[in-house]
């Protein structure tokens, strides 16, 4: 990206909030459950967030056939910028009681450096060549899904008024200054016979598309966030998260962005790469259904709250390759 790592500290927070809002709708999208400071003995001060990603309607038909109607992933992120850990998990124990879903997990690590993607060993000994596939993503010239294309976000035409960066022409990566790269190391596990290859290919494409779109937007929106302070972007993040939760309509907005760092034990994350402990209680949709007479009328519908004018105020990505692959952008 035509940014510095220090600039992207603000741009990342702005982009994720606005992107999540734009990609959310009633019953679908990203609900923020927690957002608060976190202290780690190894990585130091950071920010912990927990999100629920509702995506049933975004799944292909073959996937919707094997998951519940109310389906979401739990994302717990530890942001020790410029190092970020994001595990995603299913919202229930991986046990016989969860037989509708196989063992499935995604673990993402991100690191940012001021270079052109030239650091082949940024994740060190964690990589094993026989299991690694490397993708290079060009935010200006790689194709994105047509439904996500916006002329205002086409970096082949966009020029920043505040930074005087852009238009990004062919070969921009070799001539752009400043320039930074977002490296991703992704591990995906899906263990079910007959569906593993198809699911892996699907998730791989979805993750790449989200990353491409999100990082395009980070630069396309640079004039909106480049002058923000950390305090201002955190306030924008809080307001936008509340608007997004209201827009989804699944739960009332209740976002807590604490000013007091929590001890590392409070979130249960280990010193280096936190695992994602799964809840010991099955969600409501797994409970044994109660006996009740069958209705002869149309199926029940749920009327979700209208976010009102909030949408017009916050016009507010994305994720990787399989089996531990770093993906520079």
UniProtKB/TrEMBL annotation:
<keyword id="KW-0813">Transport</keyword>
<dbReference type="InterPro" id="IPR001666">
    <property type="entry name" value="PI_transfer"/>
</dbReference>
<keyword id="KW-0446">Lipid-binding</keyword>
<feature type="region of interest" description="Disordered">
    <location>
        <begin position="264"/>
        <end position="329"/>
    </location>
</feature>
<dbReference type="GO" id="GO:0035091">
    <property type="term" value="F:phosphatidylinositol binding"/>
</dbReference>
<dbReference type="GO" id="GO:0008526">
    <property type="term" value="F:phosphatidylinositol transfer activity"/>
</dbReference>
<dbReference type="InterPro" id="IPR023393">
    <property type="entry name" value="START-like_dom_sf"/>
</dbReference>
<protein>
    <recommendedName>
        <fullName>Cytoplasmic phosphatidylinositol transfer protein 1</fullName>
    </recommendedName>
</protein>
<dbReference type="InterPro" id="IPR055261">
    <property type="entry name" value="PI_transfer_N"/>
</dbReference>
<dbReference type="GO" id="GO:0005737">
    <property type="term" value="C:cytoplasm"/>
</dbReference>
<dbReference type="Pfam" id="PF02121">
    <property type="entry name" value="IP_trans"/>
</dbReference>
<dbReference type="GO" id="GO:0005634">
    <property type="term" value="C:nucleus"/>
</dbReference>
<comment type="similarity">
    <text>Belongs to the PtdIns transfer protein family. PI transfer class IIB subfamily.</text>
</comment>
<feature type="domain" description="Phosphatidylinositol transfer protein N-terminal">
    <location>
        <begin position="1"/>
        <end position="242"/>
    </location>
</feature>
<comment type="function">
    <text>Catalyzes the transfer of phosphatidylinositol (PI) and phosphatidic acid (PA) between membranes. Binds PA derived from the phospholipase D signaling pathway and among the cellular PA species, preferably binds to the C16:0/16:1 and C16:1/18:1 PA species.</text>
</comment>
<keyword id="KW-0445">Lipid transport</keyword>
């Amino acid at each position: 990206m035509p940014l510095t790592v220090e600039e992207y500290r603000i741009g990342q927070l702005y982009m994720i909030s606005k992107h999540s809002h734009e990609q959310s709708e009633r019953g679908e999208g990203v609900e923020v459950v927690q957002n608060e400071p976190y202290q780690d003995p190894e990585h130091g001060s950071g920010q912990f967030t927990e999100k629920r990603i509702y995506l049933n309607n975004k799944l292909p038909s073959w996937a919707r056939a094997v998951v519940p109607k109310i389906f979401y992933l739990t994302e717990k992120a530890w942001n020790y910028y410029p190092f970020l850990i994001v595990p995603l998990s299913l919202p229930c124990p991986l046990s016989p009681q969860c037989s509708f879903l196989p063992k499935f997990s995604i673990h993402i690590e991100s690191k940012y450096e001021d270079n052109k993607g030239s650091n082949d060993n940024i994740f060190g000994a964690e990589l094993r060549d026989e299991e690694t596939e490397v993708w290079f993503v060009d935010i200006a010239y790689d194709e994105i899904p047509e439904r996500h294309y916006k002329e205002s976000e086409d970096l082949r035409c966009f020029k920043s008024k505040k930074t005087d960066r852009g238009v990004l022409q062919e070969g921009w990566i070799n001539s752009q200054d400043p320039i930074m790269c977002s490296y991703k190391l992704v591990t995906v596990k899906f263990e079910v016979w007959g569906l593993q290859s198809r699911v892996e290919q699907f998730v791989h494409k979805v993750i790449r598309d989200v990353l491409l779109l999100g990082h395009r937007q980070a630069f396309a929106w640079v004039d909106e966030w480049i002058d923000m302070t950390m305090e201002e972007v955190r306030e924008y993040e809080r307001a936008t998260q509340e608007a997004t939760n209201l827009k989804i309509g699944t739960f009332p907005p209740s976002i807590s962005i604490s000013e007091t760092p929590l001890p590392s034990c409070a979130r249960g994350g280990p010193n280096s790469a936190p695992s994602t402990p799964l809840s010991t209680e099955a969600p409501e949709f797994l409970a044994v259904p109660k006996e009740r007479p069958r209705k002869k009328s149309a199926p029940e519908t749920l009327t979700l709250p209208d976010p009102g004018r909030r949408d017009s105020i916050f016009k507010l990505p994305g994720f990787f390759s399989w089996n531990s692959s770093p993906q520079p952008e």
